[in-house]
Amino acid sequence: MAKYSSLLFFFFLLLNCLQNIHASPEYSRPHPRPVILTGHNRPESEPEQVHISLVGKDHMRVTWITSDKHAKSIVEYGTSPGKYHSSSVTGERTSYRYFFYSSGEIHHVTIGPLEPNTTYYYRCGGSGPEFSFKTPPSTFPIEFAVAGDLGQTEWTASTLQHIGAKDYDLLLLPGDLSYADTQQPLWDSFGRLVEPYASKRPWMVTQGNHEIEIFPIIYPHGFKAYNSRWLMPYQESSSTSNLYYSFNVAGCHVVMLGSYTDFDADSYQYTWLQADLAKVDRVKTPWIFALIHAPWYNSNAAHKGEGESMRRSMEEVLYKARVDAVFSGHVHAYERFTRVYNNKADPCGPIYVTIGDGGNREGLAMMFEKPSPSISVFREASFGHGRLKVYNKTHAHWSWHRNNDNNSVMADELWLQSFASSKSCFPETSQQESTTQKDEL
Ligand SMILES: [Fe+2]
């Protein structure tokens, strides 16, 4: 393992050097930082890579990995440390092979019903350390942390530290998690790196290109590691694929879309998306947010046009449903657009935000188009993360927090008014709303 780690380290070092050679002379942004390889620091038999995700209204899926093939798939939990009051649930397990790599046992156990806004203490597999998480509230306010293209570098660690330093309710990740890119031990390393955060708050993720891991003939469908390790509540939202799903939390409907599965008008994903959005009750969930990996709007030279065919297929569906905001990753920079539809500013279109700046090993996407298109409001190539605090059914606050070296500094912010309270864009549900204020969209 040590030999493998040092080989990997030198490979990434070389990659970083090559990238720096191509940087422009006026380059002043932070360089990529080295990959962190995180080992299993507990006894081999104990659970590792613990993370949680929402399932339905009041359940939580607990996922962890053991090298012990006979370890039990049980979670004991309760509201006081060490007291589980015989609350114990048995779940399921899976494992996978990828060429010569065999994963550990991947345990998925869904616990609940759980009370909202409540801290639970839990233990996985009947042994090992106790963890705790807090369930999201059932009503406003609720705060999402948003971070894409995380990877597992020193920048990732910095971003995670900033995310964890201020309370939030759940994390949304618009794709590109581990940057394992077929090197399966890097999935394990990533699971260990994020465990201190992902075991405390639900992580709701969708896939990026670095999750694909297709190998012709042998693994033609890809996503073997991603689907095994990061199981999301797709069945609960009537989806047939872990690559796209939706969930409700505290008055928000969140749609997680798949940039790397079919999205044409005759695809399952398209049909599912239409049906999913048609079911949204805007009185119960006034806000709708969507996440994709490859941005539909992007004024950076990096990945230019890669989201275009998906935009052409699905933009109208989101627009007609009056989706409030769309978050994407892929481009390693931050960019916020105004309300847009079909490439033009439109007061009834979603705001589009690219937040692919979590800290991956590939570095920042420095080359923005000049001049900036009129629909692009703020753009900057720096590492960081976003916060979406939804205060009530009418107003939410979006902010972007740049990693200034090791400090987190809010560099962009915006007040949003919900479409559900907009008389002009959503007349059906907006009878008595609302005051309008400056600096909001
Ligand atoms: Fe990507």
From TrEMBL:
Signal sequence, renumbered to the chain: 1-23
Cofactor(s) demanded: Zn(2+); Fe cation
Family stated for the protein in its record: Belongs to the metallophosphoesterase superfamily. Purple acid phosphatase family.
Keyword Zinc appears in the UniProt entry: yes
Organism from which the protein derives: Nicotiana tabacum
Swiss-Prot/TrEMBL catalytic activity: a phosphate monoester + H2O = an alcohol + phosphate
Keyword annotations of the record: Glycoprotein, Hydrolase, Signal, Zinc
Entry EC number(s): 3.1.3.2
Residue ranges occupied by any Calcineurin-like phosphoesterase domain in the UniProt entry: 144-334
Protein's recorded name: Purple acid phosphatase
Parts of the chain that traverse the membrane: none
Domain Purple acid phosphatase N-terminal: 47-135
Enzyme class: hydrolase
Gene Ontology MF terms in the entry: acid phosphatase activity; metal ion binding
Domain of life: Eukaryota
Keyword Zinc applies: yes
